[in-house]
Design goal:
about 80 residues; mainly alpha; about 65% helix
Length: about 80
């Protein structure tokens, strides 16, 4: 399957987000206050990284995790 087009579209959206969000949203809100500019940029960065924690595990790591059987608890000793 050829995925070159999808990669180009994804890269375009990433670059648009990297230019549009700081230029037209963060900078006008902060004005000339550089402390607020960096604070808003930090908040934006945290908000962009939060969805990563909800992505499913895929690829070789997911296959390896599924291949490992769950540990079986040892039976209780009989007295």
């Amino acid at each position: 399957v050829y995925a070159g087009s999808a990669g180009g579209i994804i890269a375009t959206v990433q670059v648009l987000g990297a230019v549009v969000v700081p230029t037209f949203i963060i900078t006008p809100l902060a004005g000339t206050n550089t402390t607020m500019l960096f604070g808003l940029a930090a908040i934006c960065m945290v908000l962009m990284t939060l969805p990563v924690f909800f992505l499913p595990e895929v690829g070789a790591r997911a296959l390896a995790a599924r291949a490992v059987p769950a540990p079986v608890p040892a039976p209780a000793p009989v007295e």
